[in-house]
Amino acid sequence: MTGAYAENILKTALQQNRLPPLQTLQTFSVVAETGSFTQAALELNLSQSAISRQIQQLEHYFGCSLFQRHTRKVVLTEQGDAIVPIVNGLLISLRNSFEATRTKGRSLTVRMPPTFARRWLLPRLTDLHSRHPDLNITIDTAWFARPSFGPGDIDLLILYGNGHWPGMHVELLLPEKLTPMCSPSFAGQLGDPAEVESLANCVLLHSNARQSDWTLWLQAEGAYDLTAMRNQIFDTQDFAMTAAASGYGVTMGDMHLARHDLESGALVTPFPRVIESGYGYYAICPARGDAKALVADLLEWLVQERPA
């Protein structure tokens, strides 16, 4: 059953210039999920006959059967199955709209890389909400999507880069500090004390295909020609650090983003050298006054949380 078929059913029904009662849509959703009028009646605190009448009312509205009735269960027809995602989508949208009205809070959408979201922001959300209880944050990790900062789009963007975004208001949040990291059990393979040459016998874990972070650190050590036994590339630094903590190899990790794993002992830093790459995570929004005012509280909190 195609989405176009479901849309034709709805279009025909809407030509009646009236909408079905909301209660019938909720009942339809519960019956579709449970496959039972009896179970739906229990969940909605209604009689079984009331459930049956509401489904009949909805079938009359759509002009087709939505369920096949059997002795102990009901099964969606093709038409009913096609309508399920549309009805559920409407119900979810209504619930979200009502919740936003009820809480009377401010809602902001912030887009950021997944590693920054999981390893830096999430542990601090409790503090953010305690300081700004009326602020509701939607976290969007589609960092690769180009924002418009218009209605229905994001309000604040957090990106990894060098801080150069002309025409935008830019705030540094997390300067990148890099050093090799691995599990405590893996560290023994590097020697005591660890020797840079031992990295040639290891799997080096990367979060960018250019491997520029490792190149920068190895050059600082004078190891210009070091070649690893194997290189494993991940699409996020979070994955690379997780793989390192599991004992798979050595990753080039950010001291700020790995803080929890370093404090817990899941990761260790076998070499003393820590370099500043000149890159980091930045908060970005349009430089115009209304856009900055919209995110002012959140931006102020983010800057306050910046490491000294």
UniProtKB/TrEMBL annotation:
PROSITE patterns: HTH_LYSR. Residues 20-77 form the HTH lysR-type domain. Gene3D superfamilies: Periplasmic binding protein-like II, Winged helix-like DNA-binding domain superfamily/Winged helix DNA-binding domain. Keywords: DNA-binding, Transcription, Transcription regulation. Transmembrane segments: none annotated. GO terms for biological process: DNA-templated transcription. PANTHER family: HTH-TYPE TRANSCRIPTIONAL REGULATOR, HTH-TYPE TRANSCRIPTIONAL REGULATOR TRPI. This is Transcriptional regulator. It comes from Mesorhizobium hawassense.
